Amino acid sequence: MAERILMNEYKTLAKEPWVNIELEGEDIFRWTVGLIVLNPDSLYYGGYFKASMKFPRNYPFSPPEFRFQRPLYHPNIYTDGKLCISILHAPGEDEMSGELASERWSPAQRVESVLISILSLLDDAEVSSPANVDAGVMLRKEPEKYQSIVRNNVEASKQDIPDGFVMPTHQTTTVKPVEKDDSDFWAESDVDDDVFGGSDSDEDLDVDDQDTGSDDDEEEETKRA
């Protein structure tokens, strides 16, 4: 099942201009990803941020691993390129971190939602719990110095643009938010609904109908009054 799901996601993302994906040795569980920042208002605009993704054999029930291959100075990126981001943390709530289950990985997530979350994280750093403390302090106290380092990172990232690859621009496309639709996801991947308890029950539908009827009655009473 994991292979089929990943292949579908790979084919979908291969059509997107804001990301460039290659399989490592034709292994569907290992991807080389190039994230391209197309937002001209972003400090990271024009960058080509190369990273590796490794998927577990039980995907999508466990999250993938993500690591930038080139050093990137950012409060939420460790010096080894790994990320501190909730969406890549194991499913369920974590009392130690205070993260809610809804903020962490779930089997309904997709690679696309992970990559867009990472792009958003670049310009919207969480400095209250930094993975790179020095970067967090500099962002708050010396923002101009921080921006200068980031601009150098962006220029250095362009060395990783593959030969023959044409970088897109914001004039041709923009990254659109992902609207998560769990039903479409599981329909595409042929996962049995019984794994997650099936669809909405008839009882839930009856409650909705009752609520609607109640509103209509109140409206009629108001007109008669």
UniProtKB/TrEMBL annotation:
Active site: C84
Molecular-function GO term, any one: transferase activity
Entry annotated with the keyword Nucleotide-binding: yes
Matching InterPro entries: Ub_conjugating_enzyme, UBC, UBQ-conjugating_AS, UBQ-conjugating_enzyme/RWD
UniProt region (Disordered), positions on chain: 160-225
UniProt-listed PROSITE patterns: UBC_1, UBC_2
Highest taxon of the lineage: Eukaryota
Keyword check for Hydrolase: no
Compositionally biased residues, Acidic residues: 181-225
Alphabetically ordered keywords of this record: ATP-binding, Nucleotide-binding, Transferase, Ubl conjugation pathway
Domain UBC core: from-to ranges: 1-159
Regions crossing the membrane: none
Similarity field: Belongs to the ubiquitin-conjugating enzyme family.
Entry protein name: Ubiquitin-conjugating enzyme E2 2
Organism (species): Aspergillus avenaceus
